[in-house]
Amino acid sequence: MRFVLFMALILLAGCTSHEAEPAPTPSASSTSALPEAEGPAGNLASAGKDADWDTFVLPCEDKTKEPTIQQVVTADITGDGIADALVVRACDNSTVEVFDGSSPARRPWRIDQPLLSSPTAELRRPWVTGLEVASREIIIKANGHAIDDHGTCRKDRLTFAFTLVGTDFTQLRLENDPAGKCLPAG
């Protein structure tokens, strides 16, 4: 009996598989870096604020200027339970572009037209100073011009409110608080 146990141990000890490879250790050269807007899950919601947004927002009308990202807020705007990205982009004025959080991070889907890009909003030449989402309502605070003001400085504190209806944004309200003096732009 001892002989059988002894032979079994010898056989087991000699039966190591040569096919099994040790687990590779990660190194800088063996890992592939994800693009800046790509998150581990591959969707936009996973990239969130860390995405390289200046490659996805619309270009400035003045082709000599590059868009500047002022702020990024993530919140569920579409109601699908996935965080969407609201990106404040500035050239001479600010706009807010909303990207669907379930879209691929390498090619995010813009929802409707940028907020603050309507002819009425553009007349005010808004410069966003704050952005928040409350119960799927987008609230944008901005310094802007009065509609009839063609001056060089923004003197109105504006609050815009938008909501998504279907696939289009609807402006709910615009509040104006004239400051009577020049307000900062940037």
Automatic annotation (TrEMBL):
Comp. bias (Low complexity): 26-38
Keywords for the protein's UniProt record, in alphabetical order: Signal
Signal peptide positions (record): 1-19
Region (Disordered): 19-48
Protein name, per record: Lipoprotein
